[in-house]
Amino acid sequence: MQRSKTLVEEICAIPGGEGIRDCIQCGTCSASCPNAGSMDHTPRMLIAMARADMREEVLSSNAMWFCASCYLCTVRCPRSIKPTDLMHALECLAVRQCLTSERTRTPTMYRSFSDFVYSIGSVPEVGFMTWFYLLSNPLRAFKMAPLALSLITHGRMSIKARRLKPEAERQLRAILDKAEVLGGMS
Amino acid sequence: MKYYTYFPGCSSSDGGAKAYGSSALAVAKALDVELVELEDWNCCGSTPYTSVDELASRCTSVRNLALAEKRGLDLVTPCSSCYVILSRTNSYLKEYPELRVKVDEALAAGDLEYHGTVRVRHLLDILVNDVGLDEIASRVKRDLSGLKVAPYYGCQVVRPGPSFDHPESPQSLDRLIESLGAEATPFPLKARCCGGSLIIPEEDVALGLTNKLLDSAVGGGAECIITVCPLCQTNLDVYQGKVNKKFKTHYDIPVLFFTQLVGLAMGMGIKELGIEKGIVSADKVLSRYM
Questions:
Q1: B281: which of A83, B26, B86, B161 is 20 to 30 A away, CA to CA?
Q2: Chain A residue with minimal CA distance to B197?
Q3: Predicted confidence (pLDDT) per residue in A57-71, tens digit
Q4: pLDDT digits (tens, 9 = 90+) for B220-266
Q5: Mean pLDDT over each residue of chain B, to the nearest integer
Q6: How many domains is chain B built from?
Q7: Same domain membership, residue B149 and residue B97
Q8: Has residue B128 been placed in a domain?
Q9: CATH number at residue B113
């Protein structure tokens, strides 16, 4: 991380982020977004703030964490900016710079999910959900009990995690460790 | 016989959408489509991982593509989320040379290489465009006439594309339903978002979106919904009770995987297709066809 860079420069270094320079602030993304109403800043606003180099405000925003990756903005953007990918780029930067919003549980969920991918190469739903509730709010787990019970009675919950063969798991780990050494995308 | 490499994804292999995976394999076999599971596949890379560590997520994804490339066949998945991640990884590698260099280097640490030749396909695309609707219609054994089905595409099977169907007003699932002898109902929100994995951290937000979808499907006169994605099925089916509670609604609409409807039309049984695993029971709707 080089602090001398502007936020826009950092965003542009992440694949999918470079479109931010082409935005004409038309607001098509915000109007198309099904979750814009839950965001502290709309996608259009977030882009404007990033271009004004409002680093902390942008990276600590909850906006990108409400992106459900439905890609409606991406297919409608008249400048072909790919706002969905831009949101992912902002999420990555927020994680890297430890600025993730406290006003949404999504970063914790994403983290729990990613931990499983990194450690065993697949995402067993039971293990991942348990991990998420432990990391976020263990009490909420009780509220989920009826739903979990109905999944169990319908044969839709396996306790056992699918594991790759040991050599495959080692191979994936070697690849991911190398990726970490290569230091992300910027 | 048509041959493909198969990527079930975590949910459809032994997660909550196990019935999607098993019905997909049963239907494929009956249609002379051979799906050979990619050996030792790992997570597709996933949207959550992309949002935490872009490079690691792409590398996770590419390991699958590199393994699939050795077989030289199209890589088929029934999961829209896996589909969007795997196919976008492919296009990213072409679009961003600096990403490609790093990915190649990471792959080499696992003694793998990837040349970018694998075509990633969604199972719906295979059935509609490779097998073909006429062929499927000719295999129909059970008369489903009068069954009103809402075709739910969701997002990632058609967006961001380029895809095999229109990004906002897709038709392939509608036509598939008709070719099975059932009726595709008008469903204005058929390609809108169910909230995806936000159902876990931001339940209220996702329930709001799911409520709109259920309202749109029921408003079009549907008796059941079919989906092409494990996550969409989960939100619409497993969380339907929570939607009813939160919005004081009375939805009671079963949500099937599209492969289950195809299997039914081809004469397969409810149990065989795992339809009883749906949280909202399909018994009442399907009993007149059994």
A1: B26
A2: A68
A3: 999 999 999 999 999
A4: 999 999 999 999 999 999 999 999 999 999 999 999 999 999 999 99
A5: 97
A6: 2
A7: no
A8: no
A9: 1.20.1050.140
**C-alpha distance from B142 to closest chain A C-alpha (Å):** 26
- In this prediction, residues B7-20 reach a mean pLDDT of 93
Q: Do residue B116 and residue B145 come from a single domain?
A: no
| Packed helices B54-69 and A106-120: angle between N→C axes, nearest 10 degrees | 40
Domain ranges within chain A, ordered by starting residue:
7-96, 106-182
Question: Measuring CA to CA, how many Å separate B125 from each of A144, B2, B30, B38?
Answer: 35, 13, 17, 19
Give me the CATH number covering residue B144: 3.40.50.11810
Give 10-residue mean pLDDT values along chain A (186 residues).
Answer: 82 94 98 98 98 97 97 98 96 94 91 89 84 84 85 86 91 95 75
Q: In terms of domains, do B106 and B145 share one?
A: no
Interface size A-B, in CB pairs within 8 Å, comes to 215
Q: Are B185 and B272 members of one domain?
A: yes
Q: Which range marks the domain in which residue B34 is found?
A: 2-122
Euclidean distance between CA atoms A28 and B269, whole angstroms = 46
- The answer to whether residue B130 sits within a structural domain is no
Say if residue B281 is in the same domain as residue B186. yes
Task: Give the per-residue pLDDT at A28.
Answer: 98
Query: Looking at B122, B151, B180, which one is the last position of a domain?
Result: B122
The answer to whether residue B51 neighbours chain A at the CB level (below 8 Å) is: yes
Q: Which of B153, B249, B228, B150 is nearest to B193 (CA)?
A: B153
Chain A hits for B275, CB-CB cut-off 8 Å, are none
Buried b / exposed e over B198-216, threshold 16 CB at 10 Å, is bbbbbbebbbbbbbbbbeb
Phi, psi angle pair for A124, to nearest 5°: -70, 125
Judged by a CB distance cut-off of 8 A, whether residue B34 touches chain A is no
From B96, B33, B41, select the one nearest B70 (Cα to Cα).
B41
DSSP state for residue A21 in the 8-state scheme:
G
B96 and B152 both lie in a single domain: no
What ipTM did this prediction achieve? 0.95
Which residues of chain A neighbour B53 with C-beta distances below 8 Å? Answer: 92, 95, 114, 179, 184
CATH number of A7-96: 1.10.1060.10
Last residue of a domain, one of B58, B92, B122: B122
Q: Which of A14, A35, A178 sits opposite B205 (nearest CB)?
A: A35
Q: Closest approach of chain A CAs to the CA of B214, in angstroms?
A: 15
The verdict on a CB contact (< 8 Å) between B40 and A164 is yes
How many angstroms separate the CA of residue A15 from the nearest CA in chain B?
7
Q: Using CB atoms within 10 A of its CB, is residue B186 exposed (0-12), middle (13-18) or buried (19+)?
A: middle
